[in-house]
Design a protein that fits this description.
Layout: H1 2-22, H2 28-48, H3 54-58, H4 67-99, H5 106-115, H6 117-140, H7 142-159, H8 163-170, H9 174-222, H10 226-264, H11 273-279
């Protein structure tokens, strides 16, 4: 049964790719999210550079025992998480429209996220709080702290796996979102694991398209051939950016599909009906 569920997850990964091909414009959401996160990073780093507090964001070492340092870290995490969840919610909302037989637009996604601003903001605050706590544990106890923070962080990531679809569909608060996310994950853990492995494998193969030009470009630069070397490096970087956008979109589509069926018993349009019925049939 375990390997059957992994196989189902692999099929879901492939079906997610088919859905993305129908709505290629969904790649705009992770693109804008990435740009916005860079702007957030710059907006915090540059003003703080001369004060020394920029190290709180960039340095993995011990956080200074200073309330301002904690406030800076909390603010940075809050804004960053807000941006990420906002655009992920927009993408998930569009995927759900497609699954229910509609033809989503970017405006539909933005409209859905704006209508859930209170839930997204509350979740960003909770995520930032957890992030700061984990960072403090990691910085205070060195290797033991890194291990503890890593384990707690992994547990938090697992428990909150379906939080974005929950926020989009149910509009609940952060505590209820975590409970609901964990409940859905209990039903779909095998498929979620298989789908993540499937998407990860696809992304790895696609990443080779970017990695190979980077390696060749670096070799040419070291050999004193800057023009072809620089061009290959530029091609490799661009390819990796595209792969990253596709990976992010596929993960959101897969989450939306798993959530819809596991939570409501609805079979998403464009997915193999028999596949999903077998995936979530009682065992």
């Amino acid at each position: 049964m375990f390997f059957d569920r992994l196989a189902n997850g692999w099929e879901l990964a492939k079906e997610s790719w088919h859905v993305l091909k129908l709505d290629k414009e969904l790649l705009v959401f992770p693109l804008i999210s990435g740009i916005a996160c860079l702007i957030v990073l710059a907006s915090f780093a540059f003003p703080l550079w001369s004060t020394g507090y920029a190290d709180v964001i960039f340095d993995d070492g011990e956080i200074p025992n200073d309330p301002v340092a904690y406030a800076v870290l909390f603010a940075f995490y809050t804004v960053n998480y807000f941006v990420i969840v906002f655009f992920n919610s927009a993408l998930v909302a569009c995927a759900i429209i497609r699954f229910r037989g509609g033809d989503p637009t970017l405006a539909d996604g933005f409209r859905a996220s704006f209508s859930r601003l209170p839930q997204i903001l509350m979740w960003a605050l909770v995520s930032a709080t957890v992030g700061v706590i984990l960072r403090v544990i990691e910085s205070r106890a060195e290797k033991a702290g890194q291990l503890i923070a890593g384990l707690l962080g992994a547990g938090w990531s697992i428990a909150t796996f379906f939080v974005v679809p929950v926020l989009v569909i149910e509009k609940v608060g952060p505590i209820d979102a975590v409970k609901r996310s964990f409940s859905v994950l209990r039903k779909t853990w095998g498929e979620a694991l298989g789908a993540n492995f499937g998407i990860g494998f696809i992304v790895f193969l696609a990443s080779l398209v970017g990695i190979i030009p980077l390696v060749l470009g670096g070799y040419l630069l070291a050999s004193g051939q800057p023009v072809p070397g620089g061009a290959l490096i530029a091609v490799g970087v661009l390819a990796l950016i595209v792969v990253s956008l596709i990976s992010s979109a596929l993960n959101s589509i897969m989450l939306a599909a798993l959530y819809l069926y596991a939570a409501d018993g609805q079979i998403p349009t464009h997915f193999d009906n028999s596949l999903l019925r077998n995936a979530f049939s009682p065992r």
